[in-house]
Amino acid sequence: MIKNVIYILFCLLIGQLTYANDRPLSDRAEISVITCGTGNQLYSLFGHIAIRINDSFEGIDRVYNYGMFAFSEPNFYGKFVKGNLLYFAEYSTYRNFLEGYVYDGRAVYEQVLDISDAEKQVIWTKLNKSLEESNKYYIYKFIDQNCTTKVVDIVNSSIKSPVKVDVEGNTDTYRTILNTYLRSRYFEMLGINLIFGAKVDAQNTLLFLPDKFMEGLAETKIDGKPLVSETITVFKPEQVEETPSLSLNSMWFFSVAVLVLAGLMTYQGVRSVYFVIMGLLGLFFFGVGFYSLHGELLNNNTVLLCSPVFLLLPFFRKKEKIVKGLQLLALVCVILYIVLNITSEKLLVTLPLVLLTLISIAIEMRLFKRAKR
Asked: Is the pTM value of this prediction over 0.85?
């Protein structure tokens, strides 16, 4: 008897959810874009975005989210680097969605879209279609296909003209735009600049970050009428006044560390360890370029700065002809890296590492010549 009751309740629940997805919205429905502020975790440094459907007459208040992933996925990090990690779309109640961001202390803003009932229905239909098993999963891409671009695509394909792209802070290269979010997290910025290749040095043509889409919506007019009818600050965390201090995660700290290391490079053992580390990094970046499907990781000239050639230097010091050629090749690689990145912000971000590498090569060449006299 109990099993039958549970089965009936389950069927009713499934039927209700299916009906909710199929029925049209009422004329009281509101569609809004929700933009969430940045967080402390690496995946949350750029914020988040979602779409809310609020129809009090039909009893619908949902938030559709395109940034879902599962850490429990087998070989999660391998798939992420490879570029075949599946993200998926999902919806939750507005209350549940909001609670998570309030708990994390991340700001939440809501922009109500001033669009026709027909356009609302188109968005509603597309949102629900994207939840179907054959559509809900997608291959995550850093720039071309993320939680923001998925929302942008749905909105743009449902209204008369696309949301404005050339808003303030969104008109530079992808690399420069990304770096603006990482100014206070130098080591994260260094790592991202080292692993990203030539694609991110292209001029931006997309709305691929949450706050830029928010600004684009705010500045967009269709037939002379603002696309956003109202912007609501749903939650804004209290500003904690920070006492100025020297951050260990800063370019200044790393530069000081580089100066100390530069002084230690006169010791052969220190140089050997440094060359081996740089060589291994070079092999990693070289391998990722072939292994990964992420377009952002391809054509990466970091393999010139972290050249696999460095891996050979400590082991051929006694072979004069070979080591002289390796030293010269390593020097040429670093100089070529500088030339290729002369117009890219990548050079500025990696400059301490570039200088340390040049100093290390120069000391190696100088001491080698002195030893041969």
From this structure: yes
